[in-house]
Amino acid sequence: VARVLVVNPNSSVAVTERIEACVAPLQRVGDIRIDVVRLPEGPPGIQCQRDVEQVVQPLLARIEAEKADANVIACFSDPGLYAAREIAHGPVFGIAESAILTALSRGSRFGILAILPNSIPRHLRYAGAMGVLDRMAGDRALGLTVADLADADRTFDRLCSVGATLRDTDGADVLILGCAGMAHLRERLAEHLQIPVVEPTQAAVANACAAVTLGW
Amino acid sequence: VARVLVVNPNSSVAVTERIEACVAPLQRVGDIRIDVVRLPEGPPGIQCQRDVEQVVQPLLARIEAEKADANVIACFSDPGLYAAREIAHGPVFGIAESAILTALSRGSRFGILAILPNSIPRHLRYAGAMGVLDRMAGDRALGLTVADLADADRTFDRLCSVGATLRDTDGADVLILGCAGMAHLRERLAEHLQIPVVEPTQAAVANACAAVTLGW
Amino acid sequence: VARVLVVNPNSSVAVTERIEACVAPLQRVGDIRIDVVRLPEGPPGIQCQRDVEQVVQPLLARIEAEKADANVIACFSDPGLYAAREIAHGPVFGIAESAILTALSRGSRFGILAILPNSIPRHLRYAGAMGVLDRMAGDRALGLTVADLADADRTFDRLCSVGATLRDTDGADVLILGCAGMAHLRERLAEHLQIPVVEPTQAAVANACAAVTLGW
Amino acid sequence: VARVLVVNPNSSVAVTERIEACVAPLQRVGDIRIDVVRLPEGPPGIQCQRDVEQVVQPLLARIEAEKADANVIACFSDPGLYAAREIAHGPVFGIAESAILTALSRGSRFGILAILPNSIPRHLRYAGAMGVLDRMAGDRALGLTVADLADADRTFDRLCSVGATLRDTDGADVLILGCAGMAHLRERLAEHLQIPVVEPTQAAVANACAAVTLGW
Amino acid sequence: VARVLVVNPNSSVAVTERIEACVAPLQRVGDIRIDVVRLPEGPPGIQCQRDVEQVVQPLLARIEAEKADANVIACFSDPGLYAAREIAHGPVFGIAESAILTALSRGSRFGILAILPNSIPRHLRYAGAMGVLDRMAGDRALGLTVADLADADRTFDRLCSVGATLRDTDGADVLILGCAGMAHLRERLAEHLQIPVVEPTQAAVANACAAVTLGW
Amino acid sequence: VARVLVVNPNSSVAVTERIEACVAPLQRVGDIRIDVVRLPEGPPGIQCQRDVEQVVQPLLARIEAEKADANVIACFSDPGLYAAREIAHGPVFGIAESAILTALSRGSRFGILAILPNSIPRHLRYAGAMGVLDRMAGDRALGLTVADLADADRTFDRLCSVGATLRDTDGADVLILGCAGMAHLRERLAEHLQIPVVEPTQAAVANACAAVTLGW
After folding, report:
1. Element (H or E) spanning A103, and its range?
2. Which of C83, D64, E206, F137 is most buried when burial is the number of CB atoms within 10 A of its CB?
3. Res C148: pLDDT
4. Mode of pairing for the β-strands spanning E174-177 and E136-141
5. ipTM for the whole complex
């Protein structure tokens, strides 16, 4: 049995369980096992660049130790992605990178639903580093803390209104959820806005499963 | 059972069988069926822009009629991709688009192994339209006709030497096979050159299976 | 006498006559003849990507058969342009490509007056493929069907209001009419908005005439 | 009779006569007159950025005084182009800008045949300012002084060998002559290299004539 | 004692004195002398492209004659910058170039506070020529003449409101004063808007002093 | 007395002393003190992405604790730069960012002299994130370990030959030393190659001193 390791670099059990639930459909009968783990050493949520940096060491240690056939870093800042690629046994996928690449085949211009405004400059640098800035319609923040995200109704309302602005003002025709823990709202949001919505962890785990299946 | 339709827009039975073989590992037990079909109305091979244009009408008709849950256009020029998206029942994936997006998560700069030199300007336009030109290291032609590709040894020799130039002179650290019919050489080539090699039909079918599985 | 062939790929006699009228000033005494023809096999108007694809085969056949000294494809989606260049006797000009290139010498940032919203993603891909996206200020749709365009007053009102938005909100200082059939409104619109307005068929036919005259 | 003014900003009578000869085919019977003038105050040739700057004042004065219906600045550094547009009676075309825009419809990637190496950074800045850098295959210098250009055979030999490098090493499929005085060699060079070659003054004067004819 | 020459290319004594005041803190004890001079031949203010071109000749003459160890051209259109680099004794810095490069290390996206709307196309061309357009959030004009700038309160009000639009609508997180004569308002503006504000002459003189100190 | 903190994130005393020597000329009499410190917790040299990640935590802790008026991170991978900006008392400068921005005012296209080939993809991502990829001529590795760099003659020979390739093959007209410890070779290299060479720590410390002096 091949194994895909999904590391949630924060310590939240609730977020980890939501991730586990959202990737369950990708679990293949018999030949791939998807293991979702959390980093007990991580912060409860990753809200600034310093939080990002702080999880990198334990994350790398975990990926190195697990020797999985493929690995997914389940935080939208893709912490330690390039270092993980140096040391991992199998390929490594970041959920932001995978989400953006997936969105590029589902629409003409993508919009990112960020949680907090301070992550927008990081997203812009990342899209620049990926060389896909010309396809980004916009990036707008919900203005919610990771804690606020626990309130599903409030989160959904903000997703709808910020998503509508990305679609109508910025011209996005596909949206990306800029956080690992909002998968349960993806389908409702896509229906509400009538454009595709990419859930980043699902996107990355799908890529990891394909890599394992194809032996790449 | 959900169904992924893979249309090879040329009429070659041999190429169609090679495509069928290469996507077999993606066939899930029980819940996805991958149907690979050829276009009897298509030319034996697609070697110029006019060939590309010529297959679009029968290809669109087939995709519209089949009403599959997801669709793959298995020709590296992605003929009719955007029109197919207007009329198809489910999402549509082009193998060139999927291959390029897949390569972007497996290396820093990709190189394309084109079959004939006259397709290079098309690839450049396509990478420009996709907004990913900054990530393209180079595009070099094998200088083989579709007929020449039947000779596996000769094809492999050319793949190795052109691939080495893309890697060493142009700086590619991931390669893309620029044709639907070379999947059987992918693994040997990756081993020979020691960098990842993306097979475009596998990349697109993996994306199509993920879309169906996740209900996107 | 050298000959420039202008093919309107839809079947509309009225549009063909408007094209003929607008290029009349470019007709040189004695040594260039401009022939404007329509495609009887084409649809009455080209409103979606599928319509675009559908006209390519008869268009290529016509261009190949006519053996003109230069050729113009008079539809703003430039259907079959690159295939036509493979098979035509003389050079081939697309009206969208020519309009964009002409606009680049008449202003700092161009805006496109699209007819329908669904053509905007195509325009964005095209400007990306042309490598000129940094010069595009915006692309906004009139929201009129090809049939609506028959009402000149309504069309002009929409051109004025959408054009003003492109100028004042998006920063365009030159506009492009995104359709072959609005030449009769060009001058009034330019006067109303006080910025240059490029009519695409005139732009392309001017380029074709120059190529013939110079023997390029 | 409408009038197109072509100003050669150097003082060379020979270069001015060559420009006059090359635009003669564009002279329309009866309704456009093309006047080619030289700047007696200009240097014998423009070989560095300081030469470029030095001709701007007399050039602007001449264009302002002439009140032509359209204007062409016949030096490949397009000196004073944007200032001329502020003060001229009719539109103003620079030969570098027009040549690059013309090349974009005749090939996939253009190469520039510069005279001296010190103009290459200027060309790169200009293509960047025009937003068309992704379409530039390369820019290589003949390494000839403006004086050397008087020797047609030597110039042609250098054009052939540098042009072949642009085509074969850099991937250019259309070339631009980077100087106003080499029109007499254009056709031979295009035949020798079997790719289109754009002569910049012809390109700009063709644009100027079209603008006048169409009343833009 | 090494010497940095700062040339204000207009003839205004008041502006020259303001420049002198703003660079005073960079004056090192003992080993660098900063000389700020005005061009008596220049116009009272530089408000259009023609004004830009007009100052180039006397500016180059002055820089060539002074033989300073480093040179600063203190006008936001960087007139004659590349020609000055050909002829100057030491390195030459333009205040627009230096301001933009400085801003790139102080924020994610910069906004330019232009004086007049007609300079915006020039700024766009310049950012394109510099290859940094992806980092420009916006460019908006105060709509004040150089004369209006004498009224500090009115100028400050406009800076605050236009700066707030650049920050809140365009997403700029660092601003650039698009003129040499507003240094006295920099600190108040940065405090008012709570984002860094770059004063271009200070940026360029700092670079010039560093170059001299380091012997580059 | 204002204070600029320069942190060498590796533990090497020798490298720290070389950094101290190279920034000595920027030490102002009386009002700025430049403190160069090493991270005892860091590795002896930073040779891969994992080394980069590993130094971030102690580096951030040090910068936060020191409360300097400006800060410089003296490692060419700019580890933790954006996180440091969130927590530092004064502005923070990365030596790679500062070197690239400095190079942009000293030449048309820059080349980077990397130490090891595995850092080239990181440099490409970084230039992409900075939005300056169009100005990068090339990036070539010396193929020396940090230990090899102790041999000044061997290092200089490699710098000369790799630098000549960047200049002559890739078209760079300004070079950047891609490591904090080669300052002592800068001047000789610039003389040997006859193009400017930017030393990154000097570039960043100059920027930090200017920021402190100007109160930005």
Report:
1. helix A95-103
2. E206
3. 84
4. unpaired
5. 0.96
